[in-house]
Amino acid sequence: MTNSENTGSDFISEFIKEDLFNKRFSYVHTRFPPEPNGWLHIGHCKAFYIDFIMAERFGGKCNLRFDDTNPEKEDISYVEAIKRDVKWMGYDWEDREFYASDYYEFLYDMAVKIIKKGSAYVDDLTDEEIREYRGTAVADKNNITDTPPGRNSPYRDRSVEENLDLFARMRAGEYPDGARTLRAKIDMAHPNLVMRDPVMYRIRREHHYRTGDTWCIYPMYDFQHPLSDAKEGITHSLCSLEYEIHRPLYDWFIKEAEVFPSRQIEFARLNLSYTVMSKRWLLKLVQEKYVSGWDDPRMPTIAGLRRRGYTPEAIRSFVSQIGIAKTDSMVDIAFLEYCLREDLNKRAARVMAVLRPLKLIIENYPENSTEELEAVNNPEDESAGIRRVPFSRELWIERDDFEEAPPPKYFRLFPGNSVRLRYAYIVTCTGFDRDSAGNITAVRCTYDPGTKGGNAPDNKKVKGTIHWVCAANAVPMEVRLYDYLFNVERPTDVKNRADGSLSDFTDFFNHDSLEVIENAWGEPAVANAAQGKPVQFERLGYFVRDPDSSADGNKLVFNRTVGLRDTWGKIVKKS
């Protein structure tokens, strides 16, 4: 944790304080329960931030538990990715790593216990028939209301003895997949569809990544989750708002199983503009090759953000500052970028790089001569010191830093104009070269030796400063520029297509979200940039060395983390 993180009051803290005061619980124990069917994204950062910080705030503990009861979609690779990401974010679960699959025998025993109480039965209806008998919901965006009553299954009144026998035979593998289910016997007329005899177990002959082929029946999430919480002594089961309608069922299973009375509390999930926050949607992007993988730097996954150059401190600051609310809302991605810039500005070393190079020739600088100039590593951190940057007659500058016929208020290079070369000299443009096709290939200028390193008489003051790289010592780089993953703020909002059909979120995928520049140049210091350690390319933005770089430094690849322009920061400072 960092001192900048918000540890102020919020509604979850108030609930916990009330529970401790009223002696409902004598301690606080939370859990982060990911399903290992995909990689974590920034929405999960909010979830486990809340889980871990509530435990820390009240002197309790937080478990990492994998809710791995859906073998069709789960894999050990996802488990390892999740552990790597949670640890990278700065959270430690010590010896509190658990798996719902370790509780299969316990969960089976609890199901038997509920059957013996007459509160569960084996049903022969198909999935489609179960949905039909349950009734069709008339639902608004957040709640299921005004639902016509469902109908009881014809198998609902089986005896306890028959249900126990059938359930045991389900476990023994006597029936094909989907032939029978175990359902809770609650109320088929309940206004909340979740409470209409939900399925507790289904038959699935799927190989489980941990239990192998030991089981052919698997518990449903709504059944295993509260009982797994209870088994671990979880006091406060903190989850996102979509589980609010499941809370009555959570409480029902705990009561019927007569186990530890864990309490479920819901909070608003994180919705971020210009991206999607669902493992199912992110998996579609990966499988259909919209992106290169789960760790594509455009993805909102923790692995993607890490590869993009985000820091755990910036993400935690963001999650802390958006707060813990009870109502869903959309957070502007510009605020995430603001938190990132605030962090990177303090820690990123400065270097100079040119992405779209244009040759600059200083005609009155000695040929075959090189000198070293002093450059500041980080103006925000005096302890970062200085570095030596080579300078010579021929340099690379950005193509955008020269105009033959400049627009108004253009303070960079054009014929007759003077600018300062960062850390170096004032130069004056004397002309330029063209190739046979009319393209500008080089800019020519002269320099004033008396203006070195910021020195200049009053009559030599200039308005423009540009960056550069010494051509003789330049390091070649590939640079990848990333933009938002989607072209619209809310890509999952359904719209009408031109042909009248309804849109899919992939319709709004930004096909220009990645630009690869293969002929960029950097000063020698870029070769020393460590993978994952942020640097600022002066005037261009923050970058990070990508794992695609070769270990020997012969191939350098940099990802742009975020640009320098900060509209959100300007808004914050004005308000």
What are the salient characteristics of this protein?
single chain; 575 residues; alpha/beta; 13 helices; 29 strands; disordered N terminus
Describe the structure.
- This protein has 575 residues and is of the alpha/beta class.
- It is 25% helix and 24% strand.
- The chain has a 7-stranded mixed β-sheet, with helices on one face. Strands 23-20-21-22-16-19-24 form a 7-stranded mixed β-sheet, with no helix packed on it.
- Helix 8 (247-257) links the parallel strand 10 and strand 11.
- Helix 7 packs across helix 8 (247-257) and helix 11 crosses helix 12.
- The longest helix is centred in the N-terminal third of the chain and has 16 residues, at 42-57.
Measured distance between first and last alpha carbons: 28 Å
- Strand content bin: 15-25%
Summarize the amount of helix as a percent range: 25-40%
Strand order of the largest sheet: 14-27-28-29-25-26-15
| Number of discrete helical segments | 13
The gyration radius over C-alpha positions equals: 31 Å
Number of strands: 29
Query: Mean pLDDT, rounded to whole units?
Result: 92
Q: How would you characterize the largest beta sheet?
A: 7 strands, mixed
Flag low-confidence runs: 1-8, 137-142, 571-575
Instruction: Give the overall shape, derived from the CA principal axes.
Output: elongated
Which class do the helix and strand fractions yield? Answer: alpha/beta
In short:
With 575 residues, the chain is an alpha/beta fold.
Any chance you could write out the topology, listing elements then pairs?
Layout lengths: L10 H11 L7 E4 L9 H16 L3 E6 L9 H13 L8 E3 L4 H13 L3 E4 L3 H8 L3 E2 L4 E2 L14 H13 L8 E4 L14 E5 L13 E3 L1 H11 L4 E5 L6 H11 L5 E5 L2 E3 L6 H9 L14 H7 L3 H11 L6 E3 L1 H15 L1 E3 L1 E2 L2 E6 L7 E7 L9 E7 L1 E5 L19 E4 L4 E9 L5 E9 L16 E2 L2 E2 L4 E8 L31 E9 L12 E3 L3 E5 L11 E6 L4 H8 L1
Parallel strand pairs: 1-2, 2-3, 10-11, 12-13, 14-27, 16-22, 20-23, 25-29
Antiparallel strand pairs: 4-7, 5-6, 7-8, 8-9, 15-26, 16-19, 17-18, 19-24, 20-21, 21-22, 25-26, 27-28, 28-29
Helix pairs in contact: 2-11, 7-8, 11-12
